[in-house]
Write a structure and sequence with these properties.
Lipocalin, alpha+beta, 17% helix, 10-stranded antiparallel beta barrel
Length: 167
């Protein structure tokens, strides 16, 4: 009886170790494409303002960290992670709120990833401004465009950034 309990405990421990590892084995083609952005980028907004952004992986490659305007007072973060075959983006905005957006997983050669509003935390009021949507378009390995949509008082305003990889 004692050997049976020991065997059951060992089997339970193995299962507890194995289950989380299998849960993390999901594959998202869109997330794999986003991971190609790792590095430093410089770009311009439509009005000519210079913008810098950097990307790095963390958490064993399961999270992509985007840092907008690194080291500046208005530095912002966006964290991207797979959720099944889709991708979730959480944007930590200088507007002091945190919108979450979801993009479908995609398939084949991915040239564009569209993130749609999911929910938001820390929104002061329904009229307060927040980033609502994001479209990332890949031109080639060294060029991409990010089109953010900012909503305030029910009105949407696009902010388009065109980036080139810094060598």
């Amino acid at each position: 009886m004692k050997n049976l309990r020991t065997l059951a405990a060992v089997c339970a421990a193995i299962l507890m170790w194995a289950i989380p590892n299998h849960a993390a084995d999901t594959y998202s083609p869109a997330f794999e494409k986003l991971k190609t952005l790792v590095g430093n980028w410089e770009g311009k907004m439509e009005d000519g303002q210079i913008s810098r952004v950097s990307y790095r992986l963390t958490s064993s490659g399961s999270v992509l960290v985007e840092t907008d305007m690194p080291g500046e007072p208005m530095e912002m973060l966006t964290l991207y992670h797979p959720d099944g075959d889709s991708v979730i983006a959480t944007h930590y905005c200088d507007a002091k709120n945190q919108p979450r957006m979801r993009a479908s997983g995609g398939s084949g050669e991915i040239r564009e990833i569209k993130f749609n509003f999911l929910d938001i935390t820390n929104l002061a009021s329904p009229s307060t401004g927040y980033m609502r949507d994001l479209v990332i378009t890949f031109q080639d390995d060294d060029h991409f465009t990010a089109r953010w949509t900012y909503r305030e008082n029910g009105k949407d305003s696009p902010y388009v950034f065109t980036y080139t990889r810094k060598k």
